[in-house]
Amino acid sequence: MYQIKEAFYTLQGEGAQAGRASVFCRFTGCNLWSGREADRATAKCTFCDTDFIGTDGINGGKFATANALAEHIAALWPHHSDEATPYVVFTGGEPLLQLDAALIATLHSHGFEVAVETNGTLAPPPGIDWLCVSPKGSNPLAVTQGDELKLVYPQVDAPPEQFSGLGFRHFFLQPMDLAPLNQDKTTVAEATAYCMANPQWRLSLQMHKLAGFD
Ligand code: SF4
User: Fold this and answer.
1) What is the model's pTM?
2) Mean model confidence pLDDT for the chain
Protein backbone atom coordinates (compact mmCIF):
# COMPACT_ATOMS: atom_id res chain seq x y z
CA MET A 1 0.00 0.00 0.00
CA TYR A 2 1.38 3.38 -1.04
CA GLN A 3 0.06 6.56 0.55
CA ILE A 4 0.53 9.88 -1.18
CA LYS A 5 -0.39 13.31 0.07
CA GLU A 6 -0.65 14.85 -3.38
CA ALA A 7 0.46 14.54 -6.99
CA PHE A 8 0.50 17.24 -9.64
CA TYR A 9 2.08 18.29 -12.91
CA THR A 10 4.45 21.26 -12.71
CA LEU A 11 8.02 22.34 -13.41
CA GLN A 12 10.86 21.28 -11.17
CA GLY A 13 11.79 24.45 -9.30
CA GLU A 14 15.15 23.58 -7.79
CA GLY A 15 18.62 22.28 -8.51
CA ALA A 16 20.15 20.94 -11.70
CA GLN A 17 16.80 19.92 -13.20
CA ALA A 18 15.14 23.30 -12.54
CA GLY A 19 12.68 24.23 -15.24
CA ARG A 20 11.99 20.64 -16.34
CA ALA A 21 8.39 19.50 -16.71
CA SER A 22 7.68 16.98 -13.96
CA VAL A 23 4.97 15.07 -12.19
CA PHE A 24 5.54 15.66 -8.49
CA CYS A 25 4.39 12.86 -6.22
CA ARG A 26 4.51 13.64 -2.52
CA PHE A 27 4.51 10.61 -0.24
CA THR A 28 2.85 10.80 3.16
CA GLY A 29 5.06 10.73 6.26
CA CYS A 30 8.64 11.48 7.25
CA ASN A 31 11.14 9.77 9.52
CA LEU A 32 12.51 13.08 10.88
CA TRP A 33 9.27 14.79 11.98
CA SER A 34 5.68 13.75 12.65
CA GLY A 35 4.42 16.76 10.72
CA ARG A 36 2.55 18.06 13.80
CA GLU A 37 3.47 21.53 15.08
CA ALA A 38 3.34 20.26 18.67
CA ASP A 39 6.31 17.99 17.88
CA ARG A 40 8.40 20.46 15.90
CA ALA A 41 10.67 21.57 18.74
CA THR A 42 11.74 18.01 19.49
CA ALA A 43 11.89 16.80 15.88
CA LYS A 44 15.08 15.67 14.15
CA CYS A 45 14.29 18.19 11.41
CA THR A 46 12.83 21.47 12.63
CA PHE A 47 12.53 23.84 9.64
CA CYS A 48 10.12 21.91 7.43
CA ASP A 49 7.56 23.96 5.50
CA THR A 50 5.74 21.03 3.88
CA ASP A 51 2.41 19.45 4.75
CA PHE A 52 2.96 15.72 4.30
CA ILE A 53 0.27 14.37 6.65
CA GLY A 54 -2.58 12.28 5.27
CA THR A 55 -3.77 11.66 1.72
CA ASP A 56 -6.12 14.60 1.31
CA GLY A 57 -4.15 16.81 -1.09
CA ILE A 58 -4.74 17.23 -4.81
CA ASN A 59 -4.70 13.78 -6.45
CA GLY A 60 -3.72 12.26 -3.09
CA GLY A 61 -4.81 8.82 -2.01
CA LYS A 62 -3.96 5.24 -1.13
CA PHE A 63 -2.83 2.83 -3.83
CA ALA A 64 -2.83 -0.91 -3.31
CA THR A 65 -0.35 -1.75 -6.06
CA ALA A 66 2.63 -0.25 -7.86
CA ASN A 67 0.69 -0.39 -11.11
CA ALA A 68 -2.24 1.55 -9.66
CA LEU A 69 0.04 4.36 -8.49
CA ALA A 70 2.08 4.34 -11.70
CA GLU A 71 -1.09 4.71 -13.78
CA HIS A 72 -2.26 7.52 -11.51
CA ILE A 73 1.06 9.31 -12.10
CA ALA A 74 1.11 8.58 -15.84
CA ALA A 75 -2.36 10.13 -16.22
CA LEU A 76 -0.92 13.46 -15.02
CA TRP A 77 1.71 13.59 -17.76
CA PRO A 78 0.66 15.37 -20.99
CA HIS A 79 0.95 12.39 -23.31
CA HIS A 80 0.24 14.44 -26.42
CA SER A 81 3.90 15.49 -26.09
CA ASP A 82 6.04 12.61 -27.29
CA GLU A 83 9.22 14.64 -27.59
CA ALA A 84 10.20 14.63 -23.92
CA THR A 85 10.79 11.69 -21.63
CA PRO A 86 8.11 11.61 -18.93
CA TYR A 87 9.62 12.57 -15.59
CA VAL A 88 8.35 11.94 -12.08
CA VAL A 89 9.85 13.42 -8.91
CA PHE A 90 9.15 11.56 -5.69
CA THR A 91 9.29 13.76 -2.66
CA GLY A 92 7.65 13.96 0.73
CA GLY A 93 7.83 13.75 3.54
CA GLU A 94 10.51 11.18 3.08
CA PRO A 95 9.91 9.22 -0.13
CA LEU A 96 12.29 6.39 0.71
CA LEU A 97 9.92 5.24 3.46
CA GLN A 98 7.63 3.97 0.68
CA LEU A 99 9.33 4.04 -2.72
CA ASP A 100 10.44 0.55 -3.71
CA ALA A 101 12.00 -1.23 -6.66
CA ALA A 102 8.61 -2.49 -7.86
CA LEU A 103 7.19 1.02 -8.24
CA ILE A 104 10.36 2.26 -9.97
CA ALA A 105 10.31 -0.66 -12.41
CA THR A 106 6.62 -0.11 -13.14
CA LEU A 107 7.21 3.57 -13.87
CA HIS A 108 10.09 2.64 -16.17
CA SER A 109 7.70 0.36 -18.05
CA HIS A 110 5.42 3.39 -18.47
CA GLY A 111 8.37 5.27 -20.02
CA PHE A 112 9.17 7.46 -17.01
CA GLU A 113 12.49 8.64 -15.66
CA VAL A 114 12.32 8.46 -11.88
CA ALA A 115 13.78 11.17 -9.65
CA VAL A 116 13.86 11.22 -5.87
CA GLU A 117 14.40 14.03 -3.37
CA THR A 118 15.39 12.48 -0.06
CA ASN A 119 16.79 13.59 3.26
CA GLY A 120 19.45 10.91 2.68
CA THR A 121 18.99 9.02 5.93
CA LEU A 122 17.57 5.85 4.34
CA ALA A 123 19.08 3.50 1.77
CA PRO A 124 17.48 3.91 -1.68
CA PRO A 125 16.07 1.02 -3.74
CA PRO A 126 17.77 0.22 -7.06
CA GLY A 127 16.76 1.83 -10.33
CA ILE A 128 16.48 5.53 -9.43
CA ASP A 129 17.48 7.71 -12.40
CA TRP A 130 18.09 10.98 -10.55
CA LEU A 131 18.95 10.95 -6.86
CA CYS A 132 18.92 14.25 -4.97
CA VAL A 133 19.95 14.27 -1.31
CA SER A 134 19.07 17.21 0.92
CA PRO A 135 20.79 16.73 4.29
CA LYS A 136 18.92 17.84 7.38
CA GLY A 137 20.98 18.95 10.36
CA SER A 138 23.20 16.38 12.01
CA ASN A 139 21.08 13.40 10.98
CA PRO A 140 23.57 10.86 9.61
CA LEU A 141 23.53 10.20 5.89
CA ALA A 142 22.96 6.69 4.59
CA VAL A 143 23.40 8.02 1.04
CA THR A 144 26.79 9.56 0.26
CA GLN A 145 26.70 9.53 -3.52
CA GLY A 146 24.21 10.45 -6.19
CA ASP A 147 23.35 13.04 -8.80
CA GLU A 148 22.98 16.13 -6.66
CA LEU A 149 23.39 17.24 -3.09
CA LYS A 150 21.11 20.17 -2.31
CA LEU A 151 21.81 21.80 1.01
CA VAL A 152 19.38 24.23 2.60
CA TYR A 153 21.57 27.05 3.89
CA PRO A 154 22.45 27.99 6.54
CA GLN A 155 22.13 25.11 8.98
CA VAL A 156 24.40 25.48 11.99
CA ASP A 157 24.86 21.75 12.34
CA ALA A 158 25.21 21.06 8.60
CA PRO A 159 27.89 23.34 7.10
CA PRO A 160 28.66 22.84 3.38
CA GLU A 161 32.27 21.80 4.10
CA GLN A 162 30.90 18.69 5.76
CA PHE A 163 29.53 17.44 2.42
CA SER A 164 31.93 18.76 -0.20
CA GLY A 165 33.95 15.52 -0.29
CA LEU A 166 30.95 13.27 -0.97
CA GLY A 167 30.33 11.54 -4.29
CA PHE A 168 27.73 13.78 -5.94
CA ARG A 169 27.83 15.23 -9.45
CA HIS A 170 26.33 18.58 -8.43
CA PHE A 171 26.44 20.56 -5.21
CA PHE A 172 23.79 23.22 -4.59
CA LEU A 173 23.23 25.69 -1.78
CA GLN A 174 19.63 26.73 -1.39
CA PRO A 175 18.89 29.69 0.86
CA MET A 176 16.42 28.91 3.61
CA ASP A 177 13.12 30.81 3.80
CA LEU A 178 13.17 32.43 0.42
CA ALA A 179 9.49 33.35 0.55
CA PRO A 180 8.52 36.07 0.91
CA LEU A 181 11.54 37.15 -1.09
CA ASN A 182 12.17 40.46 0.61
CA GLN A 183 12.27 38.92 4.04
CA ASP A 184 15.56 37.17 3.80
CA LYS A 185 17.88 38.74 1.31
CA THR A 186 20.69 38.34 3.82
CA THR A 187 20.50 34.58 3.53
CA VAL A 188 20.51 34.77 -0.27
CA ALA A 189 23.51 37.09 -0.15
CA GLU A 190 25.38 34.78 2.21
CA ALA A 191 24.69 31.75 0.03
CA THR A 192 25.78 33.73 -3.04
CA ALA A 193 29.02 34.74 -1.33
CA TYR A 194 29.69 31.15 -0.30
CA CYS A 195 29.25 29.86 -3.85
CA MET A 196 31.54 32.58 -5.21
CA ALA A 197 34.21 31.67 -2.67
CA ASN A 198 33.69 27.92 -3.17
CA PRO A 199 32.96 27.30 -6.88
CA GLN A 200 32.20 23.63 -6.31
CA TRP A 201 28.84 24.89 -5.05
CA ARG A 202 26.11 26.48 -7.13
CA LEU A 203 23.24 28.67 -5.97
CA SER A 204 19.75 27.16 -6.18
CA LEU A 205 16.86 29.58 -5.84
CA GLN A 206 13.39 28.14 -5.60
CA MET A 207 12.11 28.96 -9.08
CA HIS A 208 8.55 27.95 -8.24
CA LYS A 209 8.42 30.58 -5.50
CA LEU A 210 10.04 33.23 -7.70
CA ALA A 211 7.72 32.53 -10.60
CA GLY A 212 4.65 31.81 -8.50
CA PHE A 213 3.86 28.24 -9.49
CA ASP A 214 3.64 25.21 -7.18
S1 SF4 B 1 13.23 15.75 6.24
FE2 SF4 B 1 12.17 16.97 4.67
S3 SF4 B 1 10.00 16.33 4.78
FE4 SF4 B 1 11.03 15.56 6.65
S5 SF4 B 1 10.63 17.14 8.18
FE6 SF4 B 1 12.61 17.65 7.22
S7 SF4 B 1 12.16 19.05 5.51
FE8 SF4 B 1 10.22 18.07 6.14
Assistant:
1) 0.95
2) 94
